Amino acid sequence: MFTLEGRQGKTVFVEGSAVKLIKRRSLLASQREKTIPIRNITSVEVKKPGALVAGFIQFSIAGGAVRDSSFKITGGTFDAVQDENSVVFADKAAYEVALQIKEYVENYKETPSSVTEPGLSAADEILKLKVLMDQGIISAEEFNTKKRQLLGI
Question: Which conformational region is residue 55 in: left (phi greater than 0), alpha (psi within -120 to 50 degrees), or beta?
């Protein structure tokens, strides 16, 4: 559905209910692939590339390290380069694709039959997310976005 070719041999593929991050093989490392179910993504950050600094798309997942580098001069690009859940890019076309991916992930809704674990209700999932918010792992905005997704509103 969406493909974003980034720098450093990294690519994002988004199709259906998953985001796949692929790091191509290099001289010193073999190819790596990581698939993140969209239901596990708590936020997506996109930074527009500038004249001197590249842009990026970064996926946050529940329980992952929280990085707030928005107040740095680079706007977090140097941190994104080192983050396995980020892809760095430099051109406007890639930025436009990153925005489309962000919108797709944020508006993704699972069908009731494919919701997370059997036996867990939307209320159970919301309680889990509330705990993550109270612990500072996700923001109130991320909590409310996921809550709306779970409630189908």
Answer: beta
